[in-house]
Amino acid sequence: MDDDDLERLREHLTTRRLGRVHEHHPSLGSTNDRALAWLANAPDGALVSADQQTAGRGRLGRSWSSPAGRDLYASVILRPGVPAAGFGALALAVGVGLREGLLGVFGGALGELALKWPNDLLLGGRKLAGILCESRWRGREVEVVVGFGINVHRQLDEFDPELRGSATSLAIVLGPELRRGRAIVLAGVLAGLERELERFFAAGFAGVRARYEPHCVVLGRAVEVEQPGGGRRVVAIAEGLDEDGALRVRPRSGGESFRVQSADVWLVEP
Ligand code: BTN
């Protein structure tokens, strides 16, 4: 984002906390790493963004491809204090916040914008955005970095070949209707995120469940999951979400239901 984009972001920012202090970098290893390094001094709501990441990180130790000037790579710092029960569902609340923020910018033009548990955003069944939440303890209080990557301008042939069958971007889906640049998308997403996080910190997952469940593509479906303790994969029916956001599944072959927390789940075709 150039100086004009950053000015546009400031003009469109409606948040009270998120993004009011902002560091933007043309290139960084990872915005999450920079935010973690800044954690001790940064105010609540501080934002780190970059035009490019050279070591972008995804969930479960994966990398996040982050070419220059195409997409959004950003991390915000949160200081929620002493966490309430159910804090594990933070990532789900972030997914809802991004979803609501994107709908605020593009409305119905986006079509079906879904959440794949725990927190991927899917547009037309393909991955549009990913979220990486990381926390550190300071005494009894927790400090959190919420990182998100949203595919904005990338065309299909710009994705790594192994992602071309499963990824998408706003530009691919909206075409010329995209019109809005990354600064406006970021301002909208921060607004959605702030609203949703306020609800989450006040009421836990109960405060966001109503906006999560109807859009969660795995609920009621057959999914492949790893058995607890890193066991073999089983096909199970995703029955529901516990109070802390864990996914409760029941093996299709019978047996006790069990909880899945922050793992990979794969949808199984009916
Ligand atoms: C995933 O789906 O695996 C999560 C991807 C998270 C990517 C974002 S991009 C901005 C922030 N910085 C990182 O290094 N990762 C997150």
Fold blueprint:
Layout lengths: L2 H10 L9 E4 L5 H8 L8 E4 L21 E10 L8 H17 L6 E4 L3 E4 L2 E13 L2 E10 L19 H5 L7 H22 L5 H4 L9 E5 L6 E9 L5 E5 L6 E3 L5 E2 L3
Parallel strand pairs: 1-2
Antiparallel strand pairs: 2-3, 3-7, 4-5, 5-6, 6-7, 8-9, 8-12, 9-10, 10-11
Helix pairs in contact: 1-5, 3-5
The structure holds biotin.
Number of strands: 12
Secondary structure tally, helices:
6
Roughly how many Å apart are the termini? 43 Å
Structural class: alpha+beta
Uncertain regions: pLDDT < 50 for 5+ in a row? none
Rg for CA atoms: 18 Å
> Shape from CA axes?
globular
The unique ligands bound to this protein are: biotin
Task: Bin the strand percentage.
Answer: 25-35%
Structure summary:
The chain is of the alpha+beta class and 270 residues long.
Give a written overview of the molecule.
The protein has 270 residues and is of the alpha+beta class. Helices cover 24% and strands 27% of the residues. The protein is built from 6 helices and 12 strands. The strands form 2 sheets. Strands 1-2-3-7-6-5-4 form a 7-stranded mixed beta sheet, with helices on both faces. α1 packs across α5 (182-203) and α3 (90-106) packs across α5. 38% of the residues are buried. Biotin (BTN) binds at residues 30-32, 53, 56-59, 62, 64, 73-75, 120, 130-132, 147-149.
Key features of this structure:
binds biotin; 12 strands; alpha+beta; five-stranded antiparallel β-sheet; globular; 27% strand; 6 helices; 270 residues; single chain; seven-stranded mixed β-sheet
